[in-house]
User: Fold these one by one.
Assistant:
Number 1:
Amino acid sequence: MALRTLGNSLLIRLGGGLLALGLAAAVASAADYAFTHLAGPLGGPGNADGPASIARFNTPNALARDPMGNIYVSDAGNRTIRKITPAGQVSTLTLAGADGGLANVGYSGLAVDAAGYLYVSYSSYNQHKIFKISPDGTVRPFAGSSYGPFYDGTRQIGVNVDGQGGAAAFFEPTGLAVDAAGNVIVADTGNNTVRRITPAGTVTTLAGDPDGGPGSAGYVDGPGTTARFTRPASVAVDSAGNILVADLTTIRRIAPDGTVTTLAGSGGQSGSTDGNGSAARFLRPCLAVDASDTIFIGDGTTVRKLAPDGTVTTLAGAAGQPEIFDGVGSAARFISPSAVLPAGDGSVLVADNQSDAIRRVAADGTVTPFAGVAGNFGATAGTGAQARFNQPWGAAYDRDGNAYVADRGNNLVRRITPAGVVTNHVATNEVGGREPVGVAIDRQGNLFVVCARNTIVRVAAATGAATLYAGKDLTFGKNDGPAATATFHYPLGITIGPDDTLYVADTGNKCIRTISPQGVVGTLAITSADVPLSAPNGITIDAAGNLYVVDRTLSTLHKITPAGVMTVLAGSPSQYGATDGVGAAARFSGPCGVAADAQGNLFVTDNGNNLIRKVTPAGAVTTIGGTFGIYGSADGTGPAAHFLAPLGVAAASDGAVLVTEELNSAVRIGRPLAAPVILTHPSGQAVAPGATATFTVTAAGYPAPTYQWYLNNVALSGATGATLTVPNAAAANAGSYTVTVSNSLGSAISNAAVLSLVTSNPTPAPSGGGGGGGGGAPSPWFLVALAALWLARRFVPSGRARA
């Protein structure tokens, strides 16, 4: 990640321009950084309770409602069960009981009976069980057992066993429902059967091949166990007691007498076609039914309805377009609806699994958020949260404060202005650069992009034209020499020295490669008393020419002097953790990116810990963003900010730190907190009566400061901007103007600026003959100047600096 400074100056952006300050005037406060979203979606995975509008989930995949109206969410990625009250408050269930089977596992299905007992399905390699959770949170096994898989060569044997409680056996039990008699209906996905558990825990097979296993798949209608299903994953019970089943490509019904029929779809024929009955098409649908027996279906990237007459229509979303947008009908977008839950008013709640949120679809197809904040990925240009990325990696700043981000999943380099406007700068794959992962900028503004598939792409500053600069697409190797014939092996980081030499972290070759300004590739000679590089990833260079490299496998930060001597600056090889400290006492976990600021401080994305770390030139490590053990996409200061797989980092010339997040598909910016500093004080004005006077102050500080102007030490109502305009100046406006600039960390008061009124000097009457005499009335200009001097002395407020 390249660093670009302007001599010894710090650039402060003021409106459309830049103001250069000496570095000594840079904002202080070493470890307090406030992180906000610069571009990309505001949501994403997390594990935060609270009001539904700010809670976070991680791949929610099942929904259920109890008699009190509480909604339960199987939060698979967090391995928890979450509860949403009718008032919209999200909490995490505290589970108790001697059985540890529900600790730290991802749950597949949920259902609630009339007494408020919650049923949970869970499957792993050798655990395929149904648990029952009482309203007080006590957990006990309900049915199913532990076993190892056993095959006879074509089928899995002994996994679809009926019986009592733990004597029964399931294979990948998934969807659950409860009928009017309190029986729990189970979609036994791996067995291709539908099972029933009585309130006493007795398990029987209702429909599908009772031998179970992969060899039992099919789409055969008929009585009970003569019927065949293919990966049934979702079940519901309608008002007549029919069991509704969604298997791989069809919607089926099991009548109370056990007869299986197909309501919609065609066995083995996938798609997203609306229509009646067998004309409709599905792919891995999930379902639920409302009180009027309308079936709601989450299917692919859409939410659909199956009316009682067999007609299938799409309520919201667009087939084959996995994105996240709220809207009406086909204008809305989903990524992967994994569960639906009718709300009773014609609307339906949707667990949009990969968007990490619960969303609501109204009866008219209007999609709005319900709980959690959806994340998203894509390639959309736009401003701030409207923009979309797909695995953003490395980043670098140019002299004007624009950031360039290697958007790996889109094969794009994206440009982000200081205001957060995102555009597609160049498509690297068009010139043989696949999977861009790092960016560096030379003194002329040319971009060099390292691509993981073994190439370097050059983008000319003047024209934006991209060309293949070094390496060969999809060709692995370690050949030095002319750039056109050189080869790399999975390079992941790039930076550029003061002489425009490129340094590449050649990860697969476990070394640092150089590319001279003349285009000759070499291998950097390194001597080290420490362990050699194992997986060099991010790389940067400071003003003295020292290289810094993070090794993802060793979890260390290395320093390489201009003489090629390498030492471990921070961390201890192959010792993992999140400890702050100095040198070898510090710990990282899979660090990926590193950038240097003008003072020689280093910023490291600690990927495995979801933290942002700061390292001084002496190797002292502190955490400036995130909290160990917590991940997400929350903005905030220091530990209140949460990240998910931070990858790239760039240090801006104004002290800010830009961070890219692979799994949140977002770009965040951290700004050092600082009390306001006035950079330019307002100047005095002398204007004619009726004219306009304008006073302006410029200030730096974060959070962004607010302003209050004063006239003769009295606050002016509504005067709260950086500029104060006094129209139609009159005697009442004359006096001393000051402005107080404030934020949560402090305030600063400007020097006084005096507004005085002046009139034109009248033409003197012709004098009589003879010599002139002294004396006479003083000049009007003299009186004005005298009044201005008196005002300046009289109205400078006590304790405020004079102009």
Note: The mean pLDDT is 88.
Number 2:
Amino acid sequence: MSSVRWNCALAALAILAPSVLAQHGGKYSPPSGDSKEAKHEQMSQLAEQIAEAKARGAGYRELQALQAEYQALSRSLGGDEPVRTADLQGLSGAPAGGYLAVPPPCSGTPFTLRFNGTSGPITPPVQSGSVSFTATVAGAGAYLWDLNLNTTILHPGCADLDITLTSPSGTVATITTDNGGTNDNVFNGTLWDDAASDLTTDKVYTNLVTATPLAPEGRLENFRGENPNGVWTLTITDDATANAGSLSAWSVDVTTLPAAPGTSTLTFSNTTPLALPPGAPTTTSGTLVDTMTVSGANASLVKLRFYTEITHTFNGDLDITLTSPLGTVATVSTDNAGTNANVFNGTMWDADSVNVASDFTYVDLVPVPSLQPEGGMDRFLGEDPNGLWTLTIVDDAGGDSGLLNRWDLEITAASTAPTPSVPSSSAGGTGSIPDFGAIPVATAFTTVVSGMSGFLWDVDFFTAISHTASADLDMTLTSPAGTVVTLTTDNGGTLDDVFNGTLWDDNVNDPATDKVYTNLVVVPQLSPEGRMAAFRGENPNGTWTLTVVDDAVADNGSVNSIWIEVSMIPPLAAMTPSVSSNTTPLPIPPGAPTTSSGTTVDTMAVSGLGTSIANLTLFTQITHTFNGDLDITLTSPAGTAVVVTTDNAGTSADVFNGTLFDPDGTDTVTDHVYPDLVVATPLTPEGSFDNFLGEDPNGTWTLTIVDDASGDTGSLNRWDLSITTCGGPASVYCTAKVNSLGCTPTIGATGSSSASSTSGFTVTASNVINNKPGLLLYSNTGRAAIPFVGGLRCMNGPVRRSTPLNSGGNPPPNDCSGVYNIDMNAFAAGVLGGTPQAYLLLPGTVINCQFWGRDNGFAPPNNATLSDALEYTVGS
């Protein structure tokens, strides 16, 4: 190889694989081999290198290259990560004790039962990406003269596709391998014909534009003379990941003869050596043209074979074409054989060869005895072969030279042109084209729950799983209602049997994603990757399904036993959410020269709430240029610390700038795919907020953010806590209608709602016009904002009304001294008369209400006043 070409190759390799050549500062030295352990070691080294690069302020391109290499290794292992060292050792808040999340005091005594499930082997991944479709030819002649193939294929990234056609006799023709680039659907209506002038290997493809007709990569001429009747098989292999497609339609068009035509064969040779100069300074500098006269052959060409003896030091430089006396041009080879020398020095170019020129694996200095030409010699079919044939060889690069020592034409021709049948078309089957790779297969194990009543409060799940690489396992638990919660994805490294006796419990403060695992040591309790709080409140009776997916090859295992434990409580009484906020921005500095340099701590005082937490969510507005640097924890007044996120979101920026961390969600913070600058919400936290249940929320809460790498900064702009406890105040929402005097009616409440009390919960509206009739409108169908009498009706229908009210206030003239009020405990109990709805006495029912009153300062039909709205929950 010339030094120029070698330098160009090195430059190209440096662009394509900077990690291989540059070594990113020389620190990365991957272990040899492709074992899972070796790849995990590479990933660990890359993780260290990413941290080092950030510490020294490396550029964006270097960090992206390192990150891409890390992710490529992870994808090759089905998404595995190496065993992680816990980022937040020494967190306060031990496992909460017992297996049951603490129920709120406004509920009754929990009732818990355990149900055993099925067991069995875990199905390992299968290699996929290849699918076969068949077409049956019947009633055709016994001698195949010509065959064309039609395909209608929908596929993004057509270069993923390798397609072959196999005859009933077993002959295989290559249609295409890795042609079409990243373009979509270019074979969606393609006629594959050896006589086409466009070669599939040389075609310039355009996205979403069908390429037709095309000469296939291998030769359909290879089928000539066979009996076409029987089953033809089209095999499509998707040999790259990320794209899948479908075969919408396909067919073979066959043309036959009653019998083989009578032919004779003659061979013609040129043996005078001719120089092949390099293609520099111009391409024409490397062009060689030689001619050969054919005479005495029959007048209708049936088959042509072509022989070459070419010596050349870089055969991939060569473009070879053959031109008939009538001017028809067929491509023999373009840029095949790479850097290898002299591989065409004794080659018979023959459509019946099994070696496809564009796919053959060449060996330097080893001539290939036979090859299928790149273009179809059927382009000459039926022509008169007598006359001047032209061989053209173009060396299209500089630095290498050679000789054309000899070339032969073997002409097989008939005295008269055969008369083939009319083409007949046979359609084949259709279907999807699966993507390439080790395709994980889900194995389902079930548990049936029955006889449970009340309100589902807590679910714990037990697994005894034997497996020799626990990070291969992705496990989800699906409830009878269809809610899916992730137990683990790619945790446990290459370690064996770490989940062989594990209780998955939200009430354990030991996240599966941060656990430090030890080979063959069972972890007895783990907080799952997703939150089982998402099941809370569902009907647990029915079939629960554990789905186990082994997403990497080479290791297998089995589920030895599983059981589920469900805990029920009586229907919940009134619980009220309350939101507390901190909105003062605080900087998040980079974690250098020490991790503590990047620590931001903010506190929030919560007061006036009930004494037992029943639910909690966290909202964050965090801007940061590299969110994967962030470790966030939330600590309660009691000192319980729960991990919100550790090192998630990779290089993406600002993805937590508007995120609700909600344990009732099913999108885990550890598995979410984070586009840069796109807020991810809602997410389930990495640790379980169930560890706060039953604690007193009143006091000082602490949000801690640790930036554990240098080079990036950010800001904590806001964080909110929404805490639900038993009972508590009602909440005001919606917009009141300003009355004709310019006053804004304002709703409020005192006391507590109670289904068992006949007084003590008064709802009022002030700033209303004095001495006017009015009503309280209410419903149990949720909030709304519907245009109504010139303002907004703040609840969905059907809307009910209280007994008649009067605003009272000062004597005339009109002013805004009026007040509407009604004791809703008394009204619900029937003490005030009217027709109160039964749901006003059902604990846990959410009520929305709003005052309506007369306002004659507005013309009909808008002669009414409307307050803002109140939402409350019926207490016990």
Note: The chain has a mean pLDDT of 86.
Number 3:
Amino acid sequence: MEAASLKDGFRVGDWLVEPRDSRASKNDQTFSLTDDQIEVLIVLASRHGEAVDHRTLRNAVWPGCHGSEEKLRQAVGALRELFGDKPRHPHYIASVGNDAYALIAHFEHLAPVAQAPDPLASGYTAQVTLGGRVEHLLVELRRRHVFKVTVSYLVGMWITLQVAEVTFEPLRFPEWWMTALTILAVIGLPIVVVLAWTYEITPEGVVLDAGVDGTGVMRRLPRPRQSIAPAIVAGVTLMAAVTGFAWWRSLDVPATTGATAAPPLEPGARSIAVLPLVDMSSGGGNAYLGDGLSEELSTKLAQIPGLRVAARTSAFEFKDKNLDVRKIGQSLGVRHVLEGSVRRNGDKVRVTVQLIDTATGYHVWAGNFDRAWRDVLALQDDIAVSVTDALQVVLKDDDARRGATQEHKLEARAIEPYLKGLAALRQPHDQSKQGEAQRAFEQAVAIDPEFAGAYAGLCRVHAREFDRTRDRSNLKLAEDACHKSLALNSSLVDTEKALAGLSLSDGDYVAAEAAYRKLLQVNSLDADSYIGLGTSLAGLGRGVEAETSFRQAVAVDPSYSQAYSSLAYYLFERGKIDEATSMLRKVTELVPASAIAWNSLGGALLMNGDFSKALDASSRSLLLEPSKSAYSNIATAYYYLGRFPEAVANAERAAAIGEHDYVIQGNLADALWQVPGRRIDAVAVYHDTIDLAERELEATPGNAALRAQLGYLYGRVGQDEKSRQYLETAAAAAPGIVYVQYFVAVAAADRGDRESALRAIAALVELGYSPLLLRSAPEFRSLLQDPEYKKVIESG
């Protein structure tokens, strides 16, 4: 844009800048600007969103003037102070590296317009046109404070409803109280608006508003207009009465009506949800027992042919919620619900369960089960048989009984830590929860060395720890635990899941795919199996099938945070950053206390170029639980902001935690590379990173992004031939992976191959990579003034 055309005025964010009058205004406040400040702002605005180096700015504003660098610094500092920019989180003028500025706020060029007369100014009369009448109506709405009253009412009612939602349930208020309050809030809105329009508060009391004419003189309203307010109030009152009566009548509908309204199930179809058993023990403290038994029972029922069992994570959403089972059944899409309670008294356990038809709300069957503590896990078999009998599902009772008699007799003291371990595994994959699960399972196997289920739990814990640290000693621990579980009980479903996850962690995608498909044949509603299958297919390069599997995980269990996380990670790698960010926001809503959820969101925001929000999300993750990923994301944000010493400090914290993680080590080397005088240190870290990445590539030879990263790393340490081989292989195998094109582009920019770098950058933008990241990336600083580079970025 030509700088001269901006003399007529333009908007920057919330500010109106008028160069001809040397002033800027916001919210009826006007500030004078110096000629230097105006000229600097015009140059930045003429190249809005671009990095303008200091030399260009000095030549444009102070050509040939001595001391112009100091003048530029003072002018930019004054503008930032005026606009309210924070040093670490600029919203108007951002520093790009150490030698450029960019105007990043919303920019709008204004054509010169005639000054409109003040509608309240003396002597002004609105034109008797539709536009004039609308303008007069808006003036009256402002004068009578209708907007303020409406906003205040909406805010007040929103706060009231939020407080009611939190407090009504603990106070045991009936569910319809919340409905009644919401109806009253909606009905009250038009009443408040009418009252605000009609009446005003004066020293003499509340009186009818007399109105104002076009000259600002008070006048009386015509009688028909004065009488409209009572009519509206009467109409709203009548509407409230009719609505309330209809709602009250709906409460009296017999429960059996739901049976006719509910859609009929397919002939012979059976479906059930197992709700968490409520802890009724004196003194409490046994909630984990009810949760663990519910999960074990869900697993048992899922193995019964013809019986569809709702995912446990969906069922657990209704824990501690006093809801009608008919609504629960409608929400989960099941015909029956199994609910109940568990009571422990010393060495005795009583479990009470009821099978309820969600279409009618009636009990189909109920039963009490008393056992010694040592036999508590055997309850799941007895309850499963009783439930399936009630549902008229044909079971081979002889086989089930025979299998039960051959089971290992558990040591009673091992049951409690085992159930605690299962409860911890249900939580998000935060390190603290994994440590809690590991300690519980280790305690269980210490008590009973032949407890197959506890070994399967340990296998899952160590496999997750390997995924987190890439330390192969954890992989060995997982293998040992899985083999032990398999030797003790080869038919245990938990063992099969653990083995499938182990194959996945070790990069054996073919074996993992087969294992997860087998698990889905047993239970087609298991979200974890769909996630594992999707990860396996992605590793095999079958992207369409992988995405379908991830989306199926979300479909079968829409309240399971890990389903959204896995889909988000897949989309993130394919450049679908916006959709991945949306998925990760959903994760933070489902598990707001999860550190890994906030950190993943921070990583997605980084890729969108929203550095300030990325810092906030990752910092929130650190407050919940320190992790290498959170420190690494914070380091990356500082890296793109050009604050390299802070980037190095946080990358070093990440590397201290993730010493075996090639990604973390590579990030540290990248930050060191940008600090003057530290490239020798960077090269040493690059060599360590190459060793880690080569070992990882041996385990996962199909990882194209890793192969591309190795090509980039070899280029940084001067091994050009190896760099070329790795980059060419990766680009040929997976050109649609964002990180493949990224490393190809950076390596080309490093060796000065402008054309190759521009081709890869164009592919990056086409895949959804943020142009703002490209503008801020130090790796591409040499291309900032290249016309082709600018064209590629603007096209994105």
Note: Residues 426 and 676 are 47 Å apart (CA to CA).
Number 4:
Amino acid sequence: MKKRIEKTKASLSTYLAVTIGITFTVVAVIVVMLVNHTMRQQAVHEAQEKARLILDRNLATHTYFSQNLKPVLFDLTDPYRPEEYFEPAWMSSTYAVREIDKYFRSLEPADYYYKECAVNARSPENEADEYERAFLEELNENPQLVRHLAERVWDGRHYLVVLRRGEVMEKSCLRCHDTPERAPAGLVDRYGPTRSFGRREGDVLSAISMRIPLDIPYARADRFSWQLSLVLLAILLILFACQHLIHRRMVLAPLNRIRGTANRIAQREEHLGEEVAPSPGRELYELTNAFNSMSKKLRHNMDHLEEIVHDRTRELAKSNQQLAVAKERAEVANHAKSEFLANMSHELRTPLNAILGFTRVMDRSRAIPSGEKENLAIIRRSGENLLHLINDVLDMSKIEAGRTVLSEKDFDLYRVLDDVESMFCLKAEEKGLQLIFDCDAGVPQHIRTDESKLRQVLVNLLGNAIKFTKEGGVSCRLSVDSCRLTVDSCRLTVDSCRLTVDGGRSSLASDNRQRTTDDEQPSTGNRQPETVNRQPSTVNRQLTIHFEVEDTGEGIASDELDSLFDAFVQTETGQKSQEGTGLGLAISRKFVQMMGGDITVESEVGRGTVFRFGIRADAAEGAGTGTAAPERRVIALEPGQPRYRILVADDRESNRLLLMRLLAPLGFELREAENGKEAVEIWEEWQPHLICMDMRMPVMDGYEATKRIKASTKGQATAVIAVTASVFEAERAVVLSAGCNDFVRKPFRDSEIFDMMRKHLGVRYVYDEPAREPGTEEQDRIPLTADALTALPAELRAELEQAIRSLDPTRVSDLTERIRGQNAALADALDISMDNFEYERILALLQESRKLEEENE
């Protein structure tokens, strides 16, 4: 035991010594480096100052010679000097500056480099080297450049290099630098007929190059750094010795006293209560006081153990009481959260109701040009995307608040898969991806579970897969544990169904027989069994359907998989895309768990990701689960009906205006109210047949107004339709209990309002032609290809290419209308590409069409 204690003491002392040594060494190294850096910077600064003095001296000489001395000498010698005469000592300022600089160096030897350099210089002594040539080229390319300053190494020596713009060729200098014929004969005889000729006015003729050596001051700085390091090392050794002495006296001795007392207490309980003498130093003083207090407390507790047990029992009862209060507060907070969700639902969905509603109203107007209707469609799709994001946040909050429930019903699983496939087919085609839906033979067509939640899970997983996949493809595979339905000794067999979309081209096959070819129209995806024996009842209906969504995208790092399903958490790839809320996977997992399953994920970076989940479902009868009939547009009321009076009560003017504009063209009598009190007053005076009542309004809300209207006999004859932005299904029961006849959630569809009027008033409508089946409009479109563009005249294609390159939308629109007169389908394909900003793709196709036309010729 004693040896172990001695080892602990030595380890603690060593630890402190090493810590101090490392800290001091780091500080010393930093100090030495800073001193060395400062001395080097000072050397560079002195070199810059020396370069400035030399440069100023030579420039002053150059300026005086060129502007004062040389003109006077030329004026004096003009009458006597022949044109062929040339003397560099007074006719070349560069020569004079170089010779004067040599004279200065002879008076005071200096180790520096100075040259007025040029490319193809007149004197070989001024010829620029490779480094100086690069600077001269940069001077001619960049007129703003004046000088260049850097540290470089030549022949193992450090220099401060200063390069500065020199002379610029002036018109008066061309006599000696234009051609050898114009130059003085003496100049040509001295320097030859090739050097420094062929210059142009404005060219940078020369640059001033200086190199100041830095080896001596750098060596001085390094020597001083070594000396400083030795001094700091000596200080470190002294510090170690002092630390060791102080540590033994001030730290280890007090700790030994505490250790000895603790050992005695541990060996015999009689020593409980013993105290240790206080030690110097605040920390050790507090430590000894704490030890003494603990010793006395243990002695006291040992003597009063029964009393302590009784006190702890009372504390436990008090804690239970506090837990009950905390539980009550949590329930209050949960209720407040639900109230907040209700308010947020109303505040967010109400303006979206106006946005989406007015786009539908404008779309019904025949006065809107066809081109603007495409803009309306873009606004509507953007609003629906925003609604989806809001629904994600609200769904997550409802899940956390426990307000989300399953809404099970019978539906066509194949139709859901077709809808999802249609939703992502175009995105897959645009990215050049292969989209595959694969159903095992045992998967039934009709099941019973929550269709909306299953659809949202598939949309979230497939949307992420396509978004993060750049090449390859995405597949969705379905299988079932057991899908054999026994019906009165008859077997119901659903044939294998496989739907494949490759680059936007789809095919549907059953029993390995291809139903459509690449040249035929894409399949609608209605998965009908080859042989079905329908019976009125089933025996075994329970099954588990497994889904697997796989992509060949970027993959997910292993350290991100644990938090993948957390709310508001995105992977590194998702953050780079700057899209989404980070709620899709969290909501999907909650929904799958509610449907009796769970989601798992496998991923490898660079190889792709696989999401798997299973849900519990019941096999359902096919009746009533087929594809819904296409929605028809109401255009008028049937003749011979009463003039219905409709009251619109809403505190938002935009919502009132939306319903007014929706109903006014059909011939309804309409009035509006801003709050519940005003609605009650108008009802008493006007007696409307139906009231569209918003439930959240100032002064008097819709609940109170409905209760007052329904309290009288004549109010029972008035149909009250609640129009609310609430997202809770439980809200429907509250609304109906207030007296409302029915319930419509914002944002609503036009057909929902018309259906409510038909249901509660018996209104009969005149309908427009049925809406086209989903996908048929796409079938009528032709793909935008180079072959299709070759059908256009070459001049028209050239004008279109020019308009796109000049970013002239008006010109592009005019040209598209001209194309529409010749080929409407091609014009529609161009419009779609323009709306998606595929300008580069259109330009590439135009160029390809030109090549095809040339090859055909």
Note: Residues 47 and 212 are 6 Å apart (CA to CA).
